[in-house]
Every structure is written in structure tokens, then in C-alpha cells.
Design goal:
Layout (H helix, E strand, L loop, with lengths): L1 H23 L11 H4 L2 H4 L1 H15 L6 H30 L6 H27 L4 H27 L6 H5 L11 H13 L18 H6 L16 H6 L19 H12 L16 H9 L19 H7 L4 E5 L7 E5 L7 H5 L8 E5 L10 H4 L7 E3 L21 E3 L10 H5 L6 E3 L7 H10 L4 E3 L16 E2 L5 E2 L7 E2 L6 E5 L21 E9 L9 E7 L6 E4 L32 E3 L4 E6 L7 E10 L10 E9 L2 E8 L11 E12 L3 E7 L17 E9 L2
Parallel strand pairs: 2-3, 3-4, 4-5, 5-6, 6-7, 9-13
Antiparallel strand pairs: 1-2, 8-10, 11-12, 12-13, 14-16, 15-22, 16-21, 17-20, 17-22, 18-19, 18-21
Helix pairs in contact: 1-5, 1-6, 4-5, 4-7, 5-6, 6-7, 9-12, 9-13, 12-13
């Protein structure tokens, strides 16, 4: 036993020396990435010295009830365990502190008290070994150790959960009662963030340099900028992190923490989609609005003043609702136990008319339908006309021109119609007059001028026509971004790029190499020729207006189709898409949504795909790899890309190799292309390889970790 004690004493002494060295020189130490997992074990291990030390204190109180020999043997054994686990916990804590997720002032108190606990327990061990005859020294040091432990625990809890973690439930009850004057953000959004997010993102512990405990801190954002983009759900970091797989390191809240409910996620998404207004009070919402009802479900205090509408139709079956929900279509009840349903369709590039027709399965229950931004044509409104109980219809940004609105005559309950940012004109007046329940129509940014709208208002006095903000003629406003009129990212061979702007007379300047366009860039004067791939950026200018923001478009030319193909490396779950078919189906991924079914993700091994062009192969001279760049999620450009070719899949030669440029800092999520030219060839087989970075760069928060490569399409071109 003496030999074991001597070894353990030396180990503990060595660890104490290491602890002091790390503490004194921590600013000069760069922690290797392989030690970071040890640091993250600090919260797991710290419970051992806490329990051992408190047990020593309790054991001291029953000294007279225990045989002296047994008492000192057990106490000595407990001291060794406590000293060893305490110094390990402190060292791991210093490792964890180097990740930089905590404020310096909050961390300092916890760090120094934690080290003090380790040193005091070591002093206890020395007293036990050398001066047992002085029990007063032992008792005083034990008391000091426990008091210091309590202080370290308090500072650690504040660091991890926030300063008022213990008293927070009591403080929450002291909030002012929620009334109709309370902003929806304050009543429904902020409580969700406080409950599910501020434990890791507060003034003391700012993971990702993000503090979510106050409104100013929220608006400031974190290391990747603002956490939401008003009106753009898919581009908002907050929503992206929520929808990551639970096992993903960047999923929020982290695995093991209380997760957001489906209702809370829907509320956050709807709030961002509606403009992320921080000040709009509850009284400004209509009772049937989806955002209002979602908020009412999570608000703890009852909201008075608005009654939910009553419906006399039967609910749809749960099986029907479940079958209609998919990544591109959301269907949910208006409120708890309500038979009414709200539907919204997403992603313009993947829309198909059948997605709308399939909603006729719940045509009786549908009261709200949002089709904004989709390529809906007038003839498709005939389907919408079957929804006889529809109350609100949103067609903003669709391709309708107005003649199809006559098909809505069957929507006898429709009272709100949004037509903003469409090509409708005054010819819609007759169709609007046939809707008996219609109360409001939104027509800003359409072909209806203000004088024409005033004339329509006089002819339809029962309606409220909303023209939106009407600027002062002397006030300069910013132009909207130019549009890609093609409406798709993959163009047919010989198809040209067509740009447009909703403001007649606006001049559009563009670049095709990804550089920033300005008024010295080429002026768009007609369709542009596309050769393989282009990163098109455009900006609009007009006299007396401020220039628009830059519009970004990634456009590819459709390539040659192989007879067959296969993946020679397996994508990692859950990013397996449709296998090889994902590379040739013409469906582009979304840079902000890695769960999009078109993506193939590779991290542990390179992406390798084999193309078979059959016994009479065409002449091939060019390849374009379409990939994702989402730096925050560790998705980087490939380390290298290679093209191999041959007439046997087992015997090929290297035809081209490229080392893509790597980013040097964080940037916006984007879909990009990598072009590789080869000497024109007629091989039957081609193999394309894209290898992920083996280590993320030093400036990245995951430095040293493996990067991902995400691929959605590979285009092959002839001469």
C-alpha cells in the first residue's frame, strides 16, 4: 500500500505543478485540437471531487462513532481520491476555458476558486501525511476547502446557466402581466430564447461570441453575424442550427439540453418570416393570423380581447395531415384542437403544380394558404377556388397576372388577399367584386398606380386596398435587387441568362466572376451567354434612387447525361440524398439547409463518382462540380478535385487535377462551382474525386477538425 501511495502522491504533485504552470502561462499556450475533448469532460468529472470533499466533511462529523484505525484509513483513502480528481478537474477546466466561449471576468472567478480548491485539498493531503497530530489545521483547511468549493460551484453555475440561474423562476413571476399592448416578441419569442438558449449564450458565457440574454445583444449577433434575417427563414442561423441533426455538434440546443417543441419552432419560423418585428403589439394582429395563434399557444398568461373564430366543419384525419407534410409543404392546425388548417409551400425551384393539387384532400379544412414566391400561374388558381372555407390567401411574388382570380369565386369566406409584387393590374377589379367576404387586398409593387388604386377604392368601397408605403417624391429610396427571369439555376444548352428589374428604366450592372458589381461594371443590355457555369452578381441603378443591394445567382448549363453511374464512396448519414441520382436530377441544393435531400455529404472519405457513357461515348472536354460552402457548419471547398478517364472502370488515367482556393474568413453561405477542362476525349468511363480538407484552418472555430464536402450536381460537357 505504501508503494501505491508514494506513486499516487508523486502523480498528484506532478499534476499540481502542471496545473500551476498552465494557470500562469495560459496566455502563451496553444491548445492542440486533440486535447479539446479532455477539456469538454470537465463538467462530467467535476461532480467527483465535489462529492468526495463533501463526504469528507460529513465523515469528520461522525469521527467519534467510528473505530480510530478504520476512520483514518478511510479518510486517507478519501483524500487521495479527492486530491487526484480535483487536480484533474481543474486542469480540464483550464483546457475548456481556452475555447474562448466565456467572458473574461466571469471565467476568472470560477477559474481561480477552482484552482484554489485543488490546492487546498492537496494541502489537506499533506497535513494528513505529515501533521496528523495537529487536527485543528486539518479542520480549518477542510472548512476552507468546502467554502471555496461552494464559491467555485456558484461561479461555475453562473458561468454555465446565467447569473440568476437559481432565482430565475422566482424573478420570472415578477414580470409585468401580458396584455394586448405587450409586443409579441416580448410575450412569446423572448421567453423561448431565455428558456432554451441563454444557458449557453449569456453575458458570462457567450458560446460563439453570442449573448442572447438582452435585446441589444441579440441584435448584435455572434461570430457569424445576426442570428436571424427578417423575412428569410432559411437564411437565418437560428433556424439553421435548430434543424441540424441532433447528433451534430452545431445543433441547438445541444443534445442533452431541453429541445424546442414543434410549436416553438413554428412560432420562431413564422415570426422571422413575418419580418421579425420586435415592437408590434399583440393587439395589432388579427385573431385568425397564424403568428398570433402560435404565440397564444406558448404565452403563459391568458390573452384577453380576441376570440378565435368558430368553425362548423369536421377536422381532417391525422393520417391525411401527416401525409401532406414534407420538406416543401407545411400543414398544421390553426390552433390547439381547431379543425382549421394552415398551409404553406416552400422553395420556388422545387415547386410542382401537384403540390398544390394534393391539398384538395383538405379543401374543407383549409383556411389559410401561403404561396408567396412560388411560380404559380393564373390557371392554377382554379385549384385554389375549391377551398371553400379559405379565409386568407397570400400570392405575393408569384407569377400570376390577374386573369385567374376569377377562379376564386368559390372561396366565399375569403376576406384577405395578398397580391403584392405580382404583375396584376386594374383588370382584377371585376374578380374582386365577386368575393362577398373580401375585406382587404394588398397591391403594393404591382402594375396598379396610386391614382388607379384610388379609383378602384371608390368603385369597391367595401374593400381596403393596401398600397404600402408611399414615399415622398424628394426622398431617396433603395431599389430592389435585380431578378433572374429564367427562374431556375440550371439552364438548357444554348439558353441565355435573362435579368430583369421590376422598376421600369432601372439600369442593371453585372459581373460573371463573382466580383462586386458597380456602375463601372458591364451594363446589362440583353440576354447573356452562359458557358458551363457562372457566379452572376447584379446591382440596379436609377436616377433619384439609391442603388440596390447585390443580387447573387449561381447558374449552370445543363450537361451531357451518362447512360449509367454509381457512387464509389458512400455519403455519410444523414446526407445521403438519392445516391448517384442526386448528381444528375437537376435539383439544386440550398446553401443554408444541409438537410436538403439533394445534398451528398462526405467527411471521412473523398467523394468519388463514376460516369458511364456507354459504348459510343460523346466527346467530353469539361466538368463542373457544384458544391456548397457553409463555413459555419464546417462545409468547405474540396481540398482537391481530380478527373480520371478510361475505357475500363478498373483502368483509368488522371486527366485533370485542381486545388480550389480556400476561404480565409467566414462568409455567406453559397453554392459554387469548380470548373475543370481536359483534353477532348471519348472515354467510356470518367471518375471524379473531391476530397474534404483534413483539417480546418487555424482561424476557424473548429480548427484542426475535419471539414465536410457537400456536392449536389456534377455537369459534364462536350466541345
Amino acid at each position: 500500500m505504501n508503494t501505491i501511495e508514494k506513486i499516487l502522491s508523486n502523480v498528484i504533485f506532478g499534476l499540481q505543478v502542471l496545473l500551476l504552470f498552465l494557470l500562469l502561462f495560459e496566455q502563451h499556450i496553444s491548445l492542440p485540437y486533440w486535447l479539446q475533448p479532455l477539456g469538454r469532460m470537465h463538467p462530467l468529472l467535476l461532480h467527483l471531487p465535489i462529492g468526495f470533499l463533501l463526504m469528507l466533511g460529513l465523515f469528520q462529523l461522525v469521527k467519534k462513532e467510528v473505530d480510530p484505525g478504520a476512520f483514518f484509513a478511510l479518510r486517507r483513502f478519501g483524500l487521495y481520491l479527492t486530491a487526484f480528481t480535483a487536480v484533474l478537474t481543474a486542469i480540464m477546466g483550464l483546457f475548456l476555458a481556452r475555447e474562448g466561449a466565456y467572458t473574461a471576468s466571469a471565467l476568472s472567478l470560477h477559474k481561480w476558486t477552482g484552482v484554489a480548491v485543488s490546492l487546498l485539498v492537496y494541502v489537506l493531503l499533506l497535513i494528513e501525511q505529515h501533521t496528523r497530530q495537529q487536527p485543528r489545521y486539518f479542520k480549518l483547511t477542510l472548512l476552507a476547502s468546502i467554502l471555496t468549493l461552494l464559491a467555485a460551484g456558484h461561479f461555475g453555475a453562473s458561468l454555465t446557466h446565467g447569473e440568476n440561474f437559481v432565482l430565475e423562476p422566482l424573478l420570472r413571476q415578477s414580470r409585468p402581466p401580458i396584455t394586448e399592448e405587450t409586443p409579441l416578441f416580448e410575450a412569446a419569442i423572448m421567453p423561448i430564447l431565455e428558456e432554451k438558449c441563454t444557458g449557453c449564450h449569456n453575458a458570462r458565457k457567450r458560446k460563439g461570441q453570442l449573448d442572447m440574454s438582452t435585446v441589444p445583444a441579440l441584435l448584435k449577433g455572434g461570430e457569424n453575424g445576426p442570428i436571424w434575417v427578417a423575412g428569410e427563414v432559411e437564411s437565418s442561423h437560428l433556424i439553421q442550427h435548430i434543424h441540424l441533426p441532433l447528433d451534430d455538434d452545431d445543433h441547438m440546443p445541444p443534445k442533452g439540453k431541453p429541445q424546442l417543441t414543434a410549436e416553438e419552432i413554428q412560432l420562431l419560423e413564422n415570426w422571422i418570416a413575418s419580418g421579425a418585428d420586435l415592437r408590434k403589439p399583440l393587439k395589432a394582429f388579427q385573431a385568425e393570423e397564424p403568428l398570433y395563434h402560435l404565440a397564444a399557444q406558448v404565452i403563459e398568461s391568458p390573452i384577453k380581447g380576441k376570440a378565435a373564430p368558430a368553425y362548423d366543419f369536421a377536422p381532417a384525419s391525422a393520417e391525411t395531415i401527416k401525409a401532406l407534410n414534407n420538406p416543401f409543404r407545411s400543414l398544421r392546425p390553426e390552433s390547439f384542437n381547431s379543425p382549421a388548417l394552415h398551409a404553406q409551400l416552400f422553395v420556388r425551384q422545387t415547386y410542382e403544380p401537384r403540390q398544390l393539387r394534393e391539398l384538395t384532400a383538405v379543401k374543407e379544412q383549409l383556411v389559410y394558404l401561403n404561396l408567396s414566391g412560388l411560380p404559380i400561374k393564373d390557371d392554377e388558381l382554379k385549384t385554389v377556388g375549391e377551398f371553400q372555407n379559405l379565409r386568407k390567401l397570400v400570392l405575393n411574388g408569384t407569377d400570376i397576372k390577374g386573369e385567374g382570380l376569377i377562379e376564386l369565386a368559390g372561396c366565399r369566406q375569403l376576406h384577405s388577399l395578398a397580391l403584392s409584387n405580382t404583375a396584376v393590374d386594374t383588370s382584377i377589379a371585376a374578380a374582386l367584386a365577386r368575393l362577398p367576404a373580401l375585406k382587404e387586398v394588398f397591391i403594393w409593387n404591382t402594375r396598379i398606380s396610386e391614382p388607379q388604386a384610388q379609383a378602384m377604392q371608390a368603385a369597391l368601397p367595401q374593400l381596403k386596398l393596401h398600397l404600402g408605403y408611399q414615399p415622398d417624391s424628394s426622398e431617396k429610396l433603395k431599389l430592389s435587387r435585380p431578378l433572374l427571369k429564367n427562374g431556375k439555376e440550371i439552364l438548357e444548352p444554348e439558353e441565355r441568362i435573362v435579368l430583369a428589374h421590376q422598376f421600369e428604366g432601372a439600369r442593371v450592372y453585372y459581373t460573371l466572376d463573382g466580383s462586386e458589381p458597380d456602375s463601372t461594371s458591364p451594363l446589362y443590355e440583353g440576354p447573356l451567354e452562359l458557358k458551363y457555369y457562372a457566379h452572376l452578381r447584379a446591382r440596379a441603378y436609377q436616377q433619384a434612387w439609391l442603388p440596390s443591394d447585390v443580387a447573387d445567382f449561381t447558374v449552370f448549363e445543363k450537361g451531357l447525361m451518362p447512360q449509367e453511374g454509381k457512387l464509389l464512396s458512400i455519403p455519410e448519414p444523414p446526407y445521403q440524398g438519392k445516391g448517384f441520382a442526386s448528381l444528375t436530377d437537376g435539383h439544386k441544393g440550398h446553401a443554408g439547409n444541409l438537410s436538403f435531400p439533394g445534398w451528398l455529404g462526405f467527411r471521412k472519405q473523398p467523394f468519388v463518382a463514376l460516369y458511364d457513357f456507354g459504348e459510343q461515348p460523346p466527346v467530353v472536354s469539361h466538368f463542373t462540380l457544384s458544391y456548397c460552402e457553409n463555413i459555419n457548419q464546417y462545409v468547405m471547398p474540396p481540398r482537391y478535385v481530380e478527373i480520371w478517364g478510361g475505357n475500363s472502370e478498373h483502368s483509368m488515367k488522371k486527366l485533370a487535377r485542381l486545388l480550389p482556393a480556400q476561404p480565409h474568413t467566414y462568409g455567406p453561405n453559397a453554392i459554387k462551382g469548380i470548373d475543370l477542362s481536359i483534353t477532348p476525349a471519348t472515354y467510356r468511363y470518367y471518375k471524379i474525386i473531391a476530397a474534404p480538407l483534413s483539417r480546418l484552418p487555424a482561424w476557424h472555430r473548429g480548427k484542426g477538425d475535419k471539414a465536410w464536402v457537400f456536392v449536389d450536381e456534377v455537369f459534364v460537357y462536350g466541345e
